[in-house]
Design goal:
The two termini are 27 Å apart. The protein is 39% helix and 21% strand. Strand 5 and strand 6 form a beta hairpin. The strands form 3 sheets. It has a 7-stranded antiparallel beta sheet, covered by helices on one side. A two-stranded antiparallel sheet has the order 1-11. It has a two-stranded antiparallel sheet with strand order 5-6. It is elongated, with a radius of gyration of 21 Å.
Amino acid sequence: MRKIYALGVVCLLAGALLCSSSGIAAKKQKGVNHAENAYEAGMTAYKKQEFQNAVYAFQNSIDYDSKLYKSHYMLGMALIMNNETESAVRVLRNTINDFPNEWQAQALLGEYYAGRGDYEDSIAYYNQALESKKLKGADKEVVQKKLTTVEREQEAKWRVSEDMKSKILKAVNTKLESVWRPRAIEKQGQNLHVVFASRDDDYQSGKWKSIIDLKCYTDKKEFGYGYVNDRVVADFRVKDAELDTLEQDEENRYFETQVNEKQKLYIVGRIFPSAMGYCLAQVKSHSKMKEADLKEWVEVLRNFKVDFIEGFNK
């Protein structure tokens, strides 16, 4: 994964993200402050690259004072550096929920997802960081540059030949209204990713109201969703979310979930087999869906059919 900066510590990674005087430096307090002492112990361990010890220390700091934002943020950083990425993502997302006016955790997740090649989530978190009133001056310029770089990388990654694009769109059969159009087509090896967005939405800005995301995996091992004890286990973006089944038969499963209450991202999805392999079609919306909306979106997803695409595996 990409290297990322920790706030207020030695800059271990490329770029100037989060290494600034405008960060969340500790203020000296009179008397014994156990939370601050544990935080300082964590920083000492972090600088020595003793990341497991840093994790313990930052967690102790939080146990003493759960309102100490910098300890939450540095716990996420230490977990990343200790290769505990799933725990790190969970900690950072919780940090964003608990401290929505801060920006460092959002920017760090933006960097993390960019390193994984997940440009959609990276762009979303960078945009969240940029919305913070506390992000100013040089820091804001750095985050904006990071966002621009990711957007350019996403655009380059989604370049598909016009001939192949035509074959893909013929193979992906839908009954979408004319107001929807494919805004991005991505070919990753033998896997397919197509994003449909409204003509009125500025998809690249991340400010869309709703999009339809279609992913097809030719290799079951790469399929982000699977069945475990009759329950859908989702990919890392909604791994800890509760997925409520709307409908299910032998080959299809329709579900809904709320990824994150603070982000206000809601999903209605369909898992189904196709000529391309295993597919996931999902509607992502920034507004909570009413019962009528759910039924309407299920019908939209029901009409997805993906045929074999000649020459796709070349």
